[in-house]
């Protein structure tokens, strides 16, 4: 079993090198093979291999962009499921990969899975999902529609009632980032918040109007 693990890790490392050296990835290649491999490796629960396949999926997303849309939509629930991991290397890789999906996927296409995970009873998973949202908004890879900003803003306002301090703080940061992106949409949403809540949000805003 150990030799099998080493063989897989070596194969994955070689594949990562090939994909990283390629300036572009041919859309004619079959990325479904990598998704099938990812599904298998995440079942085996060998963290080093999971991190490696995460890098491969991430590189496919970067190199193929919208050509990778069907595969991205297929693997998104599996990747969000991995956010419950306490392994920092793996969770970081999963967040980076999901963030790259926003190069070609809209918030609308991912909104339902965000809703599920932001109101997840599993606290660790909820925090990691918030980290992902923050990372996506800071990268500004794709401009959000008004409706997307409004829907995400409403979810964050709901999370300001959460019992966990970090969740409330991260939700405040998301609101601040959304406000900077579209103040016209967010400002009416936060009018009834307390002075304390508004003060925390203000820490994360460039625009204080």
* H/E element sequence: HHHHHHHHHHH
Assign an overall shape.
elongated
Instruction: Tell me the β content.
Output: under 5%
List low-pLDDT spans: none
Query: What composes the largest sheet?
Result: none
Instruction: Tally the beta strands.
Output: 0
Structural class, from secondary structure content? mainly alpha
Number of helices: 11
The overall average pLDDT, rounded, is 91
Rg over CA atoms? 19 Å
What percent of residues adopt helix (DSSP H or I)?
A: over 70%
N-to-C terminal Cα separation, in Å?
A: 61 Å
List keywords for this structure.
single chain, 209 residues, mainly alpha, 11 helices, 0% strand
What is the strand and helix layout of this fold?
Layout: H1 2-21, H2 32-44, H3 47-64, H4 69-81, H5 88-101, H6 107-118, H7 123-139, H8 146-159, H9 165-181, H10 183-189, H11 195-202
Helix pairs in contact: 1-3, 2-3, 2-4, 3-5, 4-6, 5-7, 6-8, 7-9, 8-9, 9-10, 9-11
């Amino acid at each position: 079993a150990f030799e099998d693990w080493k063989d897989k890790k070596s194969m994955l490392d070689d594949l990562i090198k090939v994909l990283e050296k390629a300036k572009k990835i041919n859309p004619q290649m079959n990325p479904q093979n990598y998704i099938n491999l990812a599904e298998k490796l995440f079942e085996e629960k060998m963290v080093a291999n999971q991190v490696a396949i995460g890098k491969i999926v991430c590189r496919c997303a970067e190199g193929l962009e919208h050509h990778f849309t069907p595969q991205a939509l297929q693997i998104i629930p599996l990747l969000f499921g991995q956010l419950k991991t306490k392994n920092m290397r793996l969770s970081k890789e999963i967040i980076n990969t999901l963030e790259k999906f926003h190069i070609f996927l809209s918030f609308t296409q991912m909104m339902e899975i965000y809703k599920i995970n932001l109101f997840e009873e599993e606290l660790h998973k909820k925090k990691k999902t918030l980290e992902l949202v923050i990372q996506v908004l800071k990268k500004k890879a794709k401009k959000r529609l008004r409706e997307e900003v409004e829907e995400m803003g409403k979810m964050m306002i709901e999370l300001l009632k959460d019992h966990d301090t970090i969740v409330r703080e991260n939700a405040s940061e998301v609101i601040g980032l959304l406000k900077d992106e579209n103040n016209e949409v967010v400002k009416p949403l936060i009018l009834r918040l307390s002075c304390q809540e508004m003060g925390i949000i203000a820490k994360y805003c460039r625009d204080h109007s």
